[in-house]
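Progress against Task 2.4 (sequence-to-structure conversion) is shown through the following example record, which the project officer requested during the mid-term review.
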Amino acid sequence: MSVKKGDFLRLEYIGRVQETGEVFDTTNEKVAEEEGIQLENKVYGAIPIIVGAGHVLKGIEDALIDMDEGDEKKIEIPPIEGFGERDPKLIQLIPMSEFRKQGIKPQKGMSITSEGSTGKIRSISGGRVRVDFNHELAGKTLQYQIKVQKIIQDDVEKIRSMIDLHYPNPSIDSTKHKVQIEDEKVVIYMDEMTKFDKKPYMDITFARFRIARDIWENMDNIDKVEFVDVFEKKVNEEAEKVVKPVSEEVTEESIKESTETSEIVVEEVLDERIEEKEEE
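Structure tokens generated for the chain above:
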């Protein structure tokens, strides 16, 4: 079966800058380590995507069409299909005084954020700081080695793949997500380890929205996605030690005590997970 628009699949890739051969991104952890670009909290391995959903560059999506499971291909992506051409207007000279107001000591190579855009300091001279807000790969031709590791057919696996994409976490086992498809609704009981995730609430909310959107836009007859958090008795018993009454005074000591108790709960769940794997 060949890849077509709307297919769910798992993709492997290595991305290089054509001019230098430098690897800037990859799904292969060994390659990342060898090239010195390995990220500590990144989940490596074939990434799940939906072809045509904008999860990867358009040039990659176009190249995937008509490939078969297991196929590999080298492709070249010009700037217009990659990260765009460099725009001189995105290079700004900012007075040193602006950095002082923010309590920032600018240094060459430092990344800064201004009005929602991220730029890199290129030089400091004469009391002015030259900041480039172009993407690091703007104006560059990219080379990708891509491989269709798997074309996903099962509906439950498709849903789990979107959780993997939008909610990556090395401590979370996607096979532990319980998924029910009922009429035109999907009900998701995520792996219990997500209850102890330290991500900000809004980040979790946006991740769930992106999961839901990709499901209802790319799976037939699905109009609603519901996330359910369930606390079993064994967790509730520990939770009572963690959750303080609203009327209780919040002190530095009480916050420290709650944090320590939360860590104990997480450790106990991890121990149970390890025991389950050993039994398997």
